[in-house]
Amino acid sequence: MKILSTISRDIIKLSHRKNSTIYALSSGHGKCGVALIRVSGPKAFNALSLLTKKNEFEPRKAYLRKLKHPNSGIVLDQALSVWFPGPASFTGEDIAEFQVHGGSAVVKAVLEALGSIDDLRPAKAGEFTKRAFQSGKLDLTEVEGLADLINAETEYQRRQAFKQMDGDLHR
């Protein structure tokens, strides 16, 4: 009986993790002009609405909106906000993206605001790509190509990685 309850707990943890909503800085770290923060999962639209205080977004259309902390109402930044409903998104799930100013204080404030929303958690490294793979948006060779593209340091590496990410090896 103890084994059965352990298995049940593991299944519940896995299903909870699968249905969780994650968020992270998806662009490079450090000072930059623009930073991309991505939210993926069933609560992505909720996060978008809470930070922008708007409930209507046309898919794939960028809106310039003030982002406000959902609890305090303090303005965090003025950002481009974009809604990508699943399954037609990178991960196959609902996605909200915020293109914020790239200063570390802005990024930190927006990530903290997202962390204050119920049922959102920080993404683990590679988790957006893992979800894209699990939903069939990318195959294993495309995932490897994406990793190679991110790590490419030469023009030749970039070209080869892009071909692989674009599905050449699969085809």
What does this structure look like?
- By secondary structure, the protein is of the alpha+beta class.
- The protein is built from six helices and six strands; from the N terminus they run αββαβββαβααα.
- Strands 3-4-5-2-1-6 form a six-stranded mixed sheet.
- β1 and β2 form a beta hairpin.
- α5 runs antiparallel to α6.
- It is globular and about 50 Å long.
Characteristics:
40% helix; six-stranded mixed β-sheet; alpha+beta; 171 residues; Gyrase A, domain 2; disordered N terminus; 2 domains
Overall pLDDT: 88
Instruction: Look at the structure and name the CATH superfamily of the largest domain.
Output: Probable tRNA modification gtpase trme, domain 1
Give me the Rg, rounded.
Answer: 18 Å
Return the structural class.
alpha+beta
* Total discrete domains: 2
Number of strands: 6
Major pleated sheet: 6 strands, mixed
Regarding CATH, which class of the largest domain? Alpha Beta
Briefly note the CATH topology name of the largest domain.
Gyrase A, domain 2
What is the share of helical residues? 40-55%
User: How many separate helices?
Assistant: 6
CATH architecture of the largest domain: 2-Layer Sandwich
The end-to-end distance, rounded to whole angstroms, is 49 Å
